[in-house]
């Protein structure tokens, strides 16, 4: 009897000693299961499977060690059914988290070419607008023609303008601020109180849709913390520049915080208008405000609301009929490039269970744009004194004016479900735009016009990631999208007797379905080094040409698709951070936009036309590096190389004359872009930055062969922090370089109107002071 009791006790005791403990290990930041986590007990060990699950024979209460490359090692007491969360490791040099994707992930693990500016990077640069940072980003360019950069090109793909008659508001480069889609509205790129800027290069359509065929620019402002904070900034400088910014953060109630930001900026615009005898015809007068509310009642629910209001009362006067580099203009009609935008976004995240997270992103923006300019760039006195154009002799005044007013309302809703390594979602967007214009429109065929676009997009997407081994991860996503556009255009013109007549009314609908996808393989060699390869397909929606006399067959153009292959390397250590990517892309049904002067002697008689030009290609690489020389000194460098090609395509060069374009590099595609910077700071608060950037020559347009010239810009910041105050002296374009930001080729000068290149120039040297104070 005693023997049986002892035997039973021994069996129970043995089962306790060697109990099977089961559990799951998850990524704390993404709630995805972790494969390949090493789990060590006292005398035994195991690893998690692809679902993050494990089992180990140890007694309950035994200390288990959990370790995985790229994650903090932790210890927990063994319990059956235990759930373990591991947080990604942050190395001392500062890990960067990319937040614009379907889920947050470290830059080291991002399988794409991404340039990131952190809040500290922005602060050290002394930049107040995204325009100042553009030249530091490899293979990113922008087109002039507006008071602030509005249209961007990534890897040679992107719009150069959106004048009246250039089609619907479809863009190749997305511009997103705090979950609000502001593509084509990049003038609102104020940087004060921004937490991070992310520039994705290459097609991102499988995540962001048709406005990201070339890439995406994402700006995210600082979220409200749970404590009081107040800061202000004052700046002034040459060109009658002055401005101020402030931010205040308060705790409204338990779990709810609010952050208020306000920005005002003014400068004359570096132009002397001798016709109007003023120096502010090209002024920048910009006001921007933002309010963020966060509500986090528990660890399962978080709500973040952002509201913005921007009022940009900018002038526009950058062209001169003598192409002078002294920034003297002669226009007698005031130009205007204004933008008023208000909008909101609401991001709600709910953890429904251990394996299910629900994210809702709602946004709405409404924007009023006015773009107006003197079409002949001078007054009658200039044309008479310089080119002998006498209205009394000619019988007409050489006087043209163009004005375009645009209203755009954009509503979007996205629902996203994250279930471990699976993400699924749906997307809806309704955009309405109305354009009103007066001037010499559609190549002189119309004097007044109103266009109305009704744009509807619906999409569904899915993503799946799996750890093939502890070091190899495969991720794939797909997006199916349908876009429909309803267009209505009414126009007025003049008959042979100079009487107002109604031109043909246009009703035209198009509907397109598009597929985007991306598959990537990530290899984490160690916690410092990773490699990746990816294939993807991006797309851009089709559109409608607006000219009233086009046939139905010539009016629409089809979506464009791009297929991209990319490989990359990323390495981060205490000493340096580097990333290198190489890519090759094929463009199918490439959309080519051309503009051509139709009537000699009419500088506003431009016909805008978009067509599918067959195929094209893009290839090159991007390299970025940060070297920490010492605790006080660091250096950064970037280099982009780009080789593009556009197939031949026909277009109307002038009335009744057809020309051939293409068969060469794409417009706005500099072959080489690069930058180099030296950062210095010491314990006494003194800091400095010398930043140099280079941009190679590029074609201004797809419809002529005129090119820019290579240029180099130098920016310098020197400052000192003492107590709660920081004072910075900054110099932009320190070498006072004359460089072109936009070029047109047409006939302007009477009486023969020979075609020639016309240039607008970037800002000359500007010197200023910024004083920051923390309360």
From TrEMBL:
Highest taxon above the source species: Archaea
TonB-dependent receptor-like beta-barrel domain boundaries: 296-733
Domain TonB-dependent receptor plug: 107-215
Gene3D superfamilies hit by this protein: Carboxypeptidase-like, regulatory domain, TonB-dependent receptor, beta-barrel domain
Main location: membrane
PROSITE patterns: TONB_DEPENDENT_REC_3 (PS52016)
Membrane topology, as annotated: Multi-pass membrane protein
Pfam families registered for this protein in UniProt: CarbopepD_reg_2, Plug, TonB_dep_Rec_b-barrel
UniProt keyword list: Cell outer membrane, Ion transport, Iron, Iron transport, Membrane, Receptor, TonB box, Transmembrane, Transport
GO biological process, one term: iron ion transport
Localisation: Cell outer membrane
Family annotation (SUPFAM superfamilies): Carboxypeptidase regulatory domain-like, Porins
Family annotation (PANTHER family): FERRICHROME IRON RECEPTOR-RELATED, TONB-DEPENDENT OUTER MEMBRANE RECEPTOR
Protein name per its UniProtKB record: TonB-dependent receptor
């Amino acid at each position: 009897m005693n023997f049986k009791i002892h035997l039973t006790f021994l069996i129970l005791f043995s089962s306790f000693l060697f109990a099977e403990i089961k559990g799951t290990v998850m990524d704390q930041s993404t709630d995805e299961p972790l494969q390949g986590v090493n789990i060590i007990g006292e005398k035994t060990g195991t690893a998690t499977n692809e679902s993050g699950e494990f089992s180990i024979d140890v007694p309950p209460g035994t200390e288990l060690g959990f370790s995985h490359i790229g994650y903090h090692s932790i210890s927990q007491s063994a319990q059956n059914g235990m759930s373990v969360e591991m947080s990604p490791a942050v190395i001392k040099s500062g890990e960067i988290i990319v937040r614009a994707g379907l889920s947050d992930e470290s830059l080291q693990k991002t399988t794409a070419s991404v340039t990131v500016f952190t809040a500290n990077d922005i602060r050290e640069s002394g930049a107040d607008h995204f325009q100042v940072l553009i030249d530091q980003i490899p293979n990113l360019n922008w087109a002039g023609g507006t008071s602030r950069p509005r249209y961007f090109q990534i890897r040679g793909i992107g719009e150069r303008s959106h004048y009246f008659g250039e089609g619907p508001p479809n863009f190749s480069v997305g511009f997103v601020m705090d979950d609000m889609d502001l593509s084509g509205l990049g003038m609102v790129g104020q940087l004060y109180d921004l937490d991070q800027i992310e520039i994705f290069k290459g097609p991102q359509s499988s995540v962001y849709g048709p406005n990201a065929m070339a890439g995406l620019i994402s700006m995210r402002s600082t979220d409200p913390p749970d404590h009081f904070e107040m800061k202000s900034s004052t700046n002034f400088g040459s060109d009658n520049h002055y401005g101020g910014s402030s931010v205040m953060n308060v705790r409204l109630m338990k779990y709810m915080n609010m952050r208020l930001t306000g920005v005002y900026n003014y400068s004359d615009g570096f132009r002397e208008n001798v016709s109007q005898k003023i120096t502010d015809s090209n002024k920048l007068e910009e006001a921007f405000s933002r309010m963020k509310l966060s509500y986090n009642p528990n660890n399962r629910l978080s709500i973040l609301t952002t509201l913005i209001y921007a009022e940009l009362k900018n002038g526009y006067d950058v062209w001169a009929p003598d192409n002078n580099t002294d920034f003297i203009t002669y226009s007698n009609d005031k130009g205007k490039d204004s933008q008023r935008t208000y909008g909101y976004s609401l991001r709600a995240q709910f953890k429904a269970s251990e394996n299910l997270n629900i994210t809702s992103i709602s946004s709405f923006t409404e924007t009023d744009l006015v773009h107006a300019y003197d079409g002949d760039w001078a007054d009658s006195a200039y044309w008479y004194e310089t080119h002998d154009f006498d209205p009394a002799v000619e019988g007409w005044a050489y006087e043209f004016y163009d004005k375009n007013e645009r209203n755009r309302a954009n509503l979007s809703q996205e629902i996203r479900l994250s279930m471990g390594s699976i993400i699924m979602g749906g997307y809806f967007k309704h955009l309405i735009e109305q354009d009103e214009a007066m001037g010499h429109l559609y190549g002189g065929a119309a004097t007044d016009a109103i266009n109305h676009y009704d744009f509807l997009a619906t999409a569904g997407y899915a993503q799946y990631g799996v750890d093939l081994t502890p070091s190899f991860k495969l991720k794939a996503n797909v997006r199916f999208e349908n876009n429909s556009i309803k267009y209505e255009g009414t126009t007025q013109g003049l008959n042979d007797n100079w009487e107002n007549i109604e031109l043909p009314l246009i009703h035209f609908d198009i509907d397109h379905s598009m597929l985007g996808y991306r598959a990537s393989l990530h290899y984490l060699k160690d916690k410092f080094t990773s490699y990746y390869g990816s294939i993807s397909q991006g797309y851009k929606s089709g559109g409608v040409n607006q000219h009233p006399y086009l046939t139905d067959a010539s009016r629409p153009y089809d979506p464009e698709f791009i297929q991209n292959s990319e490989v990359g390397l990323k390495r981060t250590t205490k000493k340096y951070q580097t990333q290198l990517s190489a890519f090759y892309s094929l463009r199918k049904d490439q959309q080519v936009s051309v503009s051509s002067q139709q009537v000699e002697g009419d500088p506003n008689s431009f016909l805008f036309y978009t067509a599918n030009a067959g195929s094209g290609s893009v290839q090159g690489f991007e390299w970025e590096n940060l070297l920490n020389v010492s605790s006080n000194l660091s250096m950064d460098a970037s280099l982009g190389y780009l080789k593009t090609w556009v197939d031949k395509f026909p277009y109307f060069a002038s009335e009744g004359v057809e020309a051939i374009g293409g068969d060469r590099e794409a417009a706005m595609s500099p072959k080489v872009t690069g930058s180099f910077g030296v950062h210095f700071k010491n314990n006494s608060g003194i800091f400095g930055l010398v930043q140099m950037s280079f941009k190679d020559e590029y074609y201004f347009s797809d419809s002529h062969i005129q090119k820019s010239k290579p240029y180099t810009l130098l920016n310098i910041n020197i400052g000192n922090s003492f107590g709660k105050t920081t004072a910075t002296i900054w110099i932009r374009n320190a070498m006072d370089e004359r460089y072109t930001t936009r070029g047109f080729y047409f006939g302007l000068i009477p009486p023969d109107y020979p075609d020639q290149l016309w240039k607008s120039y970037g800002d000359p040297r500007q010197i200023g002071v910024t004083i920051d104070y923390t309360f």
